[in-house]
Amino acid sequence: MVSTGETAPTFSATYRGSDHETFDLEEHLGDGPVVLAFFPGAFTPPCSNEMVAIQDRIGEFEDAGATVLGVSADSAFSLEAFAEEYGLEFDLVSDMDGAAIDAYDLAIDIPELGLHDIANRAVFVLDEEGTVSHEWVAEDPTDEPDYEELVAAAEEAA
Length: 158
Hints:
This protein is of the alpha+beta class. The protein is 28% helix and 27% strand.
């Protein structure tokens, strides 16, 4: 598991949408804090609640100079529909091959829902150098982080 004080693993994936645009975490480092919000699955109630709660605070994250990124194993197409449905203005990243999920040691299964190797809910705040300055990992995938604490962590990392 990636911990506070460690260098965050970088990864490449795909931005939401149909253009299959490549996302590379390294391109976001050095421009202020990065908030990586891993979530299990688009359109599920806890994930929808979390992403909407982050969207509700997007101005605070932006005031801290932070880039917010939602990351899940969902397809880029699903993430585009999810963002449109909930009015999400921050980028969502499709990690269908699980490289980021594995690098952050977040893979979980929810067999009763038929979900395997998806991301546990977790948030990592990275400083400009890519060092983890704050981490939160759910004990249960339905848990949600303390959003004010995440904003404060982004402000501290700036």
